[in-house]
Amino acid sequence: MVQALPASPTLAPVDGDDEWDGEQDPAVAADETVEVREALVDAGWHGQRLDRWMVDLAPEFSRNHLQSLIERGCVSINGQPAPSASRKLQAGQRVRVELQPTEESRAFRAEVLPLDIVYEDEHLLVLNKAAGMVVHPASGNWTGTVMNGLLAYHPAAASLPRAGIVHRLDKDTSGLMMVGKSREAVTALTRMIAAREVHREYVALAYGRVPEEMTVDAPLRRDLISRIKMAVLATGKPSRTDVYLLGMGEQGVRSISAVHCVLHSGRTHQIRVHLAYKGYPLVADALYGGVPALGLTRQALHAARLSFAHPVSGVALQFEAGLPADLAAAWEQLDLPPLSLPPIFD
Q1: 323 Cβ partners below 8 Å, 6+ apart?
Q2: What is the dihedral of CA 276, 280, 281, 284, to 10 degrees?
Q3: Which of 11, 41, 52, 139 allows an S-S link to 93, with CB 3.0 to 4.6 Å?
Q4: Structural contact between residues 220 and 236, judged by C-beta atoms closer than 8 angstroms
């Protein structure tokens, strides 16, 4: 086992950070420092790879992260930058490692980002999310998310579960989302979603001639072959989507239907999977068989209406978001009538 030498008295400062350990709320960050560890290579490690030795020195970090520290110049051998992770060590060498935080640990930090706020009071915020923006930090998207933006816009969100986010939209789905700004509101909104008391309505463009009205009641779960997909499977969770035809146009030899979708459950990719299951994949939804068209490079899906009771006052609220520029242009190419959602709920 590698024995670290006494810690260096000089710690390199880095920016503050927000931490969130999954089960706990994001915490307001204190000043963070980079820990420096040094150790001498003993005879047992002579001829071994540098990255393997580092795993023994800092077992709380993954080997991939430690390799990235070598690439970033955070590791030195006898005062010289380590050339590679595969460098063979020699007994008696002094290795110094600056243990920079992982991308995951940096994820929950405030970032000033453009957020389209359509409603706000002391308990509640409703925003119109842009397509291409991820809601929660995750692998491949540790920055630039809705959560990062909320932590900058509303610093008190750091004390709330998931910064107040109570539901999400897919990265490439645009439209309305609600966010709690107080613990009371977050708790109430979460319960309302579970009780199906929040009404979420979407607009989409789908290939094919969709019927005037259609209900898709089909259970969904993670696809058994591709883990990035969802699928209709008997062992899935109950899922229902009501679909209403808004209009129809033609793109070459293919018909494209504009549809109004009403969720009665909120499963991952629900509308995308349900429509593809019925033979009507969304335009540009490559994951579920919809090829790009009409200038669209992301699935043609927009959260257009959100209806619910205010989580504290109980006042009925309803919000609508018009089509974003890319969907509006596609809508126009199909010569569809102006978007007007009919009332579905009293």
Answers
A1: 203, 302, 304, 331, 339
A2: -170
A3: 41
A4: yes
Average pLDDT, stretch 280-306?
Answer: 97
318 contact partners, CB below 8 Å, separation of at least 6: 305, 306, 307
Active site residues: 170
Q: Give residue for tokens 């969802």.
A: 230
Report, as an integer, the average pLDDT of 4-9: 49
Per-residue pLDDT at 4: 60
Inform me whether the pLDDT recorded for 27 exceeds 70: no
> Taking CA 286 as the corner, what is the angle to CA 284 and CA 291, rounded to the nearest 5 degrees?
50
| H-state helical runs in 221-317 | 270-277
Average pLDDT for 7-14: 34
- Asked whether the predicted pLDDT for residue 28 surpasses 90, the reply is no
Rounded CA-CA distance 81/77 in Å is 6
CA dist 165 and 170 (Å) reads 14
Distance CA 340, CA 76 (A): 64
Q: How far apart are CA 336 and CA 334, in angstroms?
A: 5
Half-sphere exposure of 80 (CA within 13 A, CB side): 5
d(C-alpha 62, C-alpha 54), whole Å: 10
Residue 135 and residue 279: Cα distance in Å, rounded?
29
> What does the mean pLDDT of the chain come to?
88
Is 15 a residue whose pLDDT tops 50? Answer: no
Percent of the chain beyond pLDDT 70? Answer: 88
Torsions phi, psi of 222, nearest 5?
A: -60, 135
Please choose, from the candidates 169, 152, 270, 261, the residue with its C-alpha nearest in 3D space to the C-alpha of residue 210: 261
Average pLDDT over residues 286-291: 96
Residues 6+ apart with CB under 8 A from 257: 205, 206, 207, 208, 209, 210, 245, 246, 247, 248, 280
Q: Give the model confidence (pLDDT) of 162-188 as tens digits.
A: 899 999 999 999 999 999 999 999 999
